[in-house]
Specification:
single chain, alpha+beta, about 30% helix, about 40% strand, binds flavin mononucleotide
Length: about 190
């Protein structure tokens, strides 16, 4: 049985948190339309465990729409200070509402209000429209907790492939690929 790639991810992630000057939790998220046209953007990792890698977004955004039509994604972490990358591929599910509520409640009030004010991925006539909506939300929720906007939700990527790349001298980089096999993982080395 191969080493557990999620334990290896945790070890690298811990090192990245100590080494990176900012955003060790930033990851590129690639999605694709039902016709397989790809798109990619950065998001933040908000949870990781045996069940997968979790991030939060607006379900009506471009990424959200693509994930609902084609629930597969690829993630990429690049930790420059460590000269490492981790690549993850798998199927995607929405996290349950109670979990999204619990995470939303931990966010700062301004980000909570921002989530209400933003219509992510929709064209915006100008910045002041967004600012006006933000002010409107401030008043709407004045004196009360800000609830999670119904379309603001978490998605979780359940990995079926995880590849760890690290820089080595003379371009003999190391690549360890883990592929899910039943309840465990198979491991192989790849050419650099
Ligand atoms: C470092 C970084 C982290 C980001 N984290 C998130 C995030 O966690 N969730 C999110 O919805 N957008 C995040 N964004 C903004 C997205 O990259 C993107 O602009 C936005 O979500 C709209 O994407 P879409 O139109 O492809 O759906 C982040 C951007 C950067 C640069």
């Amino acid at each position: 049985m191969a080493e557990d790639p999620l334990a290896l991810f945790d070890a690298w992630y811990t090192e990245a948190k100590a080494a990176e000057i900012n955003d060790p939790d930033a990851m590129a998220l690639a999605t694709a339309t039902a016709e397989a046209a790809p798109s990619v953007r950065m998001v933040l990792l908000k949870g990781v465990g045996p069940e997968g890698f979790t991030f939060y977004t607006n379900a009506d955004s471009r990424k959200g729409t693509e994930l609902q039509a084609n629930p597969k994604a690829s993630l990429l972490f690049h930790w420059k200070a460590l000269r490492r990358q981790v690549r993850v591929e798998g199927s995607v599910t929405e996290v349950d509402q109670a979990e999204s509520d619990a995470y939303f409640a931990t966010r700062g009030r301004d980000s909570q209000l921002g989530a209400w004010a933003s219509d992510q991925s929709r064209p915006l006539d100008d910045r002041s429209t967004f600012e006006a909506r933000f002010e409107e939300m401030k008043q709407r929720f004045d004196g009360q907790d800000v609830p999670r906007p119904p379309r603001w939700t978490g998605f979780r990527v359940r990995p079926v492939r995880i590849e760890f790349w690290s820089d080595r001298p003379h371009r003999l980089h190391e690549r360890r690929l883990f592929v899910r096999e039943g309840d465990g993982w198979l491991e192989g080395l790849l050419y650099p």
